[in-house]
Structure prediction request, 355 residues.
Amino acid sequence: MTLERRYAEMQNARTSHRLDANALLARRPPINKRLFQAIINARCTDALLWSFTSLIGIVVACLHSIPLLTNSWVYLTEPRPFNKTNENGEFLETVFHYRAGYFQMCREHISNVYDTDDIALYLSRKESELQCQWNPIFTGEDLTEFSSATLAIENRLAVPALMHVIGATMCYVAFCLGALGHIKRNSRTLLSAILYICGGLVVLMGVLQFVCVVDDELAPRMKPNAAGEPSKFTFQYGYSFFFSSLSFLPLQMCACFHAFLYFRRYPTAIDKMKVVPGLEAKMRRAEVDNTMYITPAEPVKRGSLCGVYPPAHSTSSKLQKSSVSPSHMQIPPPPPPRLSSIKKSPSIIFVIENV
Prediction:
């Protein structure tokens, strides 16, 4: 009987423990609420903000490096003749797929709807396999047999490639300066923000140049021919292009965070006078105007350091308190008349002689 009672007590204890655990899990908030609450309660310290900024800077560096190292900026389909003629003695055409970048372009033949015969029988093994060629700007090779439209695009990518390299280099230098500025607590942090903005603008200009080149070369080729047949030229932008385009937003976030980290070291207006040129003179002028109750001639933006002026009603009330009532005011005598205003009449001369 004692064993049965102990066994029942053990079962009851296990059941109650299981129920308590289930009740605790039921009262526990879900993981998304706990995550949001942890983010809200977290303090935005300099170390945490700099770590987040560095993470975004690494993402920006990757978004700039991948497009430079890959050749997936634009995908094209381009017709090329092969070793077969029609009844008129003209060479037939098949469609090749190209992908182009700043420094390299690749070609591969893939069977498509335009092929009526087994094209592999008429193409050499070299032509049917994947081929890659360097940009002829650097090698000087004649690649007219390799491509026409893609080659024309590659020949005009010198300026966009140079701008992209310069902008990416500026962003790399900005990342290093941001790290040094945070460690040494000096003005390199602000210089990092400036370089981030300049580098992002240079990269963006290079991307726009690339878009202009592609549209300029392929827009005439994509029109239907004289017989009304659709063009075999097509293109679409690849992931390298989208990486470069999307890098502008996190890049500007890095610039804003670095500027915020720099000015956060100077919390008061007196501290900001040491680093902001002309702020001290502006603050002194605002203090003088505030003391003499002079309304500034230029409108001051809301939240400005110099926008500390008393409201109009307080100024008027102070003036009313300090003013004297009209009954106690003494009117000064009028000034004597000028001699030039006195006319030389006989009566006036007679009065003067009698006096």
Q: What stands out?
A: Residues 303-331, 339-355 have pLDDT under 50 and may be disordered. Strands lie at 74-85, 91-100, 104-109, 131-134, 234-237. Residues 169 and 253 are 18 Å apart (CA to CA). Residues 188-218 form the longest helix (31 residues).
